[in-house]
Write a structure and sequence with these properties.
The protein is α+β, with helices and mostly antiparallel strands. The chain has two domains: about 15-80, Arc Repressor Mutant, subunit A (Orthogonal Bundle); about 85-240, Chorismate lyase (3-Layer(aba) Sandwich). About 25% of the residues lie in helices and about 35% in strands. The strands form three sheets. A six-stranded antiparallel beta sheet has the order 4-5-6-9-8-7. Strands 1-2 form a two-stranded antiparallel ribbon. This is GntR family transcriptional regulator. It comes from Mesorhizobium marinum. Keywords: DNA-binding, Transcription, Transcription regulation.
């Protein structure tokens, strides 16, 4: 693999590792290194960028921690722009999470209907079972690769006319804020390991039973819970990382 890479400029005030990191990110962002590309080894990158191996390791670690690279023991380092890494973060939508990682978000509404709240949904939204909720079911993608299926439930009385909007819903949070003045203030999430259902498998382009993260999220504003979402995220394209310290 041959690529033109911007060498570091030692006359600039930015640290060498930062310049190296930005050069690597640039090759990923502009498509020079597409998803699945194997990077040159550390020695070659050091030569290409004009920095030491220690500097390269620092830059590679930062890009890897942001979810854009994966290291495979005995094989090397690969680009993985279609993977979302979840970790300590602020209260953001999937759309913003994808944008923060330099991915092009995709969203397709599969279903938007009003229906009675099940006991599970009612308990999460702190409403009575049977009350009307709006269900928004969407296929979420990054860089044209299917990532997951999200089923969001919202009390219908808070979003009158939502099912009749007749427009795409790439970011539900942006729509709720613009049309109904609903803005998230806090959320609780639960992650568990599960499997892709037979219904979701064709949409996610995997076999039924494939590993997945099942993510439950309850989002609230000043009036209380306004959204309960259950997401099935592909296990090979979504991961969770935490940084622990004493």
């Amino acid at each position: 693999m041959t690529a033109t890479i911007r060498r570091v400029d030692r006359s600039r005030p930015e640290p060498l590792w930062h310049q190296a990191e930005q050069a690597l990110r640039g090759l990923i962002a502009d498509g020079t290194w597409p998803d699945g590309t194997q990077l040159p080894n550390e020695g070659k990158l050091s030569e290409m960028l004009g920095v030491s191996r220690i500097t390269i390791r620092h830059a590679l670690r930062n890009v890897e921690e942001s979810g854009l690279l994966r290291r495979e023991h005995g094989r090397g380092t690969f680009v993985r722009t279609s993977t979302v890494t979840a970790g300590v973060r602020g209260l953001t939508s999937f759309t913003q999470e994808m944008a923060d990682r330099g991915l092009v978000v995709g969203s397709r509404v599969l279903e938007m209907v009003e229906l009675p709240a099940s006991p599970e949904v009612a308990n999460a939204l702190e409403i009575a079972a049977g009350e009307t909720v709006v269900k928004v079911r969407r296929l979420r993608a990054g860089n044209n690769q299917p990532m997951g299926i999200q089923n969001a439930f919202i009390p219908a009385e808070r979003v009158p006319g939502l099912v009749d909007i007749g427009e795409p819903v790439p970011s539900l949070y942006e729509l709720l804020k613009a049309r109904y003045g609903i803005a998230p203030q806090m959320a609780r999430e639960i992650y568990r390991v599960g499997a892709v259902s037979a219904e979701d498998a064709p949409l996610l382009e995997v076999e039924a039973g494939s590993p997945a993260f099942i993510v439950q999220r309850i989002t609230s504003d000043g009036r209380g819970p306004f959204e309960y979402t259950v997401s099935t995220m592909r296990g090979d394209r979504y991961e969770i990382r935490s940084r622990l310290q004493l």
